[in-house]
Specification:
The protein has 267 residues and is α/β, with parallel strands linked by helices. The protein folds into two domains: 171 residues, Flavodoxin domain (Rossmann fold, 3-Layer(aba) Sandwich); 65 residues, Alpha-Beta Plaits (2-Layer Sandwich). It has nine helices and twelve strands. The strands form four sheets. It has a six-stranded mixed β-sheet, sandwiched between helices. The longest helix is centred in the middle third of the chain and has 20 residues. Bound molecules: flavin mononucleotide.
Length: 267
């Protein structure tokens, strides 16, 4: 195992792209995906252990918190957490900090993938995809510089009470939305959504994708569908689809990604 380990949850690629950029700039890392149960949970040999995940409904995706409870980190390891969102970070880092105390944390915004709630370019100031990506890459470089030097954050991660209320209601809201998935006749039964779904909630029935209700709302199926055949109500048909321009379905479906250092300097 690499001495740097990053656990990553990503639905539409923003977090995976950020994790890769951080990894490259801290001297390389093993990125362990936590879309499904992580392949490795005992990382007591790692020197730096980080988490990169999106804000969903004001907090961390529930599977991030579930799997974080199983992860074993050395008491001497340097730990960090990064929450990516469209506009506000929510309480995800604060909740993770209660499970795995974090030496360092950062909140970063990127394009929105919650197509039924917000347009994907919901950002302040408004940015196009290329500019948002460039900004995210610059931020990853800055965050990586702090992580490489093992800087500590003297403040606790944010815990806005309004986000806490929102996050409490989120599971119910997400479940209701999950029941509204529709797959239209443009579906070619390619099976990409089946492969991508982290909850194994999609199957091909009678030559068409069928989405069940065990959904975490990562929206990978909808945003990566090559035929834009998946929707959640009419609003998603009207909105431009988005996934991170540098991340593919193949990237997202790996369980461990080995990332080399961008520069061969000491770490
Ligand atoms: C279901 C869902 C809920 C989201 N909720 C929030 C939110 O509460 N606040 C926010 O600022 N962004 C929210 N977002 C935006 C994501 O945090 C943002 O798009 C993130 O970059 C997605 O990362 P990913 O591409 O790695 O999945 C949400 C996105 C999704 C799909």
């Amino acid at each position: 195992m690499h001495k740097n380990v990053i656990f990553c949850y990503s639905g539409t690629g923003n977090c995976l792209n950020f994790a890769k950029n951080v990894a490259e700039n801290i001297g390389g890392a093993d990125i362990i995906m936590m879309r499904k149960r992580p392949e490795i949970t005992d990382v007591t040999e790692a020197e730096r252990v980080g988490f990169v995940f999106p804000c969903f409904g004001g907090g961390a995706p529930e599977d991030v918190l579930k799997y974080a409870k199983e992860i074993k980190v050395s008491p001497s390891a340097y730990t960090f957490g990064i929450s990516m969102s469209a506009s506000y970070a929510g309480i995800g880092l604060s909740t993770l900090n209660e499970i795995i105390p974090l030496n360092y944390w950062a909140t970063v915004t990127h394009q929105c993938s919650c197509i039924w709630l917000f347009p994907h370019d919901l950002m302040m100031p408004k940015l196009n995809v290329a500019d948002a990506q460039a900004r995210s890459e610059k931020l990853a470089w800055e965050v990586a510089a702090s992580i490489k030097l093992k800087r500590n954050k003297d403040k606790k991660p944010p815990r806005n009470p309004v986000n806490a209320i929102e996050n409490k209601a989120w599971t119910g809201i997400a479940a209701k939305k999950a029941a509204q998935f529709k797959v239209n006749n443009d579906c070619i039964a390619c099976g990409q959504c089946v492969r991508l779904c982290p909850r194994e909630n999609i199957e091909i029935v009678d030559g068409k994708a069928k989405i069940g209700t065990n959904c975490i709302q990562c929206l990978g199926c909808l945003q990566f569908c090559p035929k834009s055949a998946i929707s959640i109500g009419e609003i998603t048909d009207k909105r431009e689809h988005y996934h991170n321009p540098k991340v593919t379905v193949d990237d997202l479906t790996q369980s461990i990604i080995h990332v080399e250092a961008a520069f061969s300097s000491g770490t």
